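Changelog note: in this version the structure field was regenerated for every chain. One regenerated record is shown below for reference.
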Amino acid sequence: VLQPATPAPAGQAQASAAHTQQQQQQQRHSAGPLAVRLRGVGALEAAQQELPPWRDSQLPLTDRVADLVSSLTQDEKLGLMNNYQQPVERLSISGYQFWSECLHGHQEHGSGALPTIFPQPLLLASSFDDSLAWQVFNAISDELRAKDNAEFADTGKRKGLVCWTPHVNIFKDPRWGRGSETFGEDPVLTGRMALRVVQGLQGSDATYKKVVATCKHFLGYGLEAAEGYSRYAHNINISPQDLTDTDLPPFRACVQSAGALGIMCAYNAVNGTASCASAPLLKQLLRNSMGFEGYVVSDCNAVQALEWGHRAYPNMRDASVAAVKAGVDLFCDKTDEVSHACT
């Protein structure tokens, strides 16, 4: 027969309960911060495990890009084909403005300190000092990085990590009006300067670029408007020898020697075909022959000009399709017109 336990005196029971409560509190205090840290690590690991492949920095870049593209709808892809890329909110992708100019210093004010303005490229080329060109554009890329940081802090948007520079067309006629943007009439000097400009902008890190350089205008650009001719409709006939000796060397320096990641196609036509709708230029020559692996952007309104300038296509839809098939990746045209044309 089990005897009932003898109850402890009231004072002893209260002391025992208080001691037990104190021990539990001590255990919580000693384990609390560690437990919180461990729970935080667990939550972080769980969040990392749930990231889509395109956000996994440990995967190869090509795999991440392929996964991201496959995750986009058609409308979202169209929104990313314009120089002002539209945000994709469901994937937490913010908008981005590709259009930044830094011909001799960043041209826009906006957020951050005022940029340094250097001499025009034609004057820089007159120094015949390509190491000076590197110093100038290394400083410009530093300022563009600072500009991007300031823009992001103020607006939450990125701007300044891509620059549509250098201008490497050959200065063939002083009546052009844009000769001061170039490095002059000598293909060899222009190529040397282009090489150092791209290196100064993009930096030397094997993984990350300071700023993406975009060499322009591919190919043969050299007229704005004269004697009834317009840059939006002008055709230039370039012989194989002139192409090899004069127009191509600066672009070869950009692509093959400096590794530029951007090329802008020109307004004009070359040998009867508009540059921004020319697969022989953009695919066969630029990508297949020269080994270019970056992005091709149209000059601004150049795709629209395929319709009303060159009159090569009856409407914007056909012009846009032709440009994409020829090798244009990014349109510097009105977003609404591009999206409407491609749907």
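Spot check on this record: The chain has eleven helices and twelve strands. Residues 10-49 form the longest helix (40 residues).
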